[in-house]
Amino acid sequence: MTSAPASDQAPEPINWKRNLFVVWIGCFLTGAAFSLIMPFLPLYIEKLGVTGHESLNMWSGLVFSITFLFSAIASPFWGGLADRKGRKIMLLRSALGMAIVMALMGMANNIWQFLVLRALLGLLGGFVPNANALIATQIPRNKSGWALGTLSTGAVSGALIGPLVGGILADSYGLRPVFFITAAVLFTCFLMTLYLVREQFVPVNKKDMLNRKQVFASLKDPKLVLCLFITTMIIQVATGSIAPILTLYVRELAGNTQNLAFISGMIASVPGVAALLSAPRLGKLGDKIGPERILVAMLAISVLLLIPMAFVQSPLQLGILRFLLGATDGALLPAVQTLLIYNCTNQVAGRVFSYNQSFRDVGNVTGPLLGASVSAGYGFRAVFCVTACVVLFNACYSYWSLQRRPSQAMVE
Length: 412
Description:
It is a multi-pass membrane protein. With 412 residues, the protein is mainly α. Helices cover 80% and strands 0% of the residues. It has helices at 13-36, 41-47, 53-85, 87-105, 111-124, 127-136, 144-173, 175-196, 212-217, 222-242, 246-254, 260-289, 291-309, 315-342, 349-378, 380-402, 407-411. The longest helix has 33 residues, at 53-85.
């Protein structure tokens, strides 16, 4: 097996810093584009002919989940292509493909067309994981935590501002024009990537590519990498399990209030704000003390924050706990990504990050299903207890797996 070329180790500092800035903006635009349509997605489904409370709920869940499902299926394929052709071309493919699909969504005439397009959006997506792979293979290893933590704030920032902007645009221009505006945002992302991102990449012949078995054989610790994939999935399960019941739980806590939507929106958003503030700082701390310590510590703190959420008596108490939870969550995925890049070569980084994205997408699908099932059988408060148990298992599993290899061995 050939070793990674020397040029992979330390590109010119100005190169990776500029690329980090540009792809951060790309992740911001992508995150905003995806979340722009979320506030009115059920309304658009209703506009396409779906009527009745149960049917509307079913179709809303289906069109939301199918994107993540097909993304999980497609990510390994795109990751292999990224390792063979380069990460920049995958960013261009993703941005342009999503722009075209978004524009077609604005022209959908029935729910089946819309469902197919949502699936296609998942197949053609992948801007954020490819951005992570591009930056991870260019930055000095001792700055991985800070850089990947900073990069993670791009998509978080976009996802936070997207619903607000989407709601304003929908009220001002109607539902369908928002899809065309979203397509324009994604096309802007395509143009920025095309002209501003630089990558020194030598294409690899298909016959010289490592197969999946060889990819895992090339890893420093394949069992640890698999543990990190599972950790990513459980992080998303824990995050998504609360989403279906949050507004209803807030209503139960607030009682009869006139501004339920505003309060729910604020409580839904505060974890993202906290993650935005904490991710770069905790990533930088992880570069000093080891990302595995940050990962286990933040998982343990998450458990301690989730349990009290089952016993809060007011929306304010819930909001404070969710803000603190967001601060811990902001460090989790960057810590996982840093550990992944410590344990793989640049030759296979695209596929490793794509496998991680597949596990993340599986968590995005199963998390809301878990939350809905538990709340239906045992009530809203039980969801937080079950989620805390899931995260506790993850913390113990991660601690056990990471204890087998000290930080310094992974950095070398």
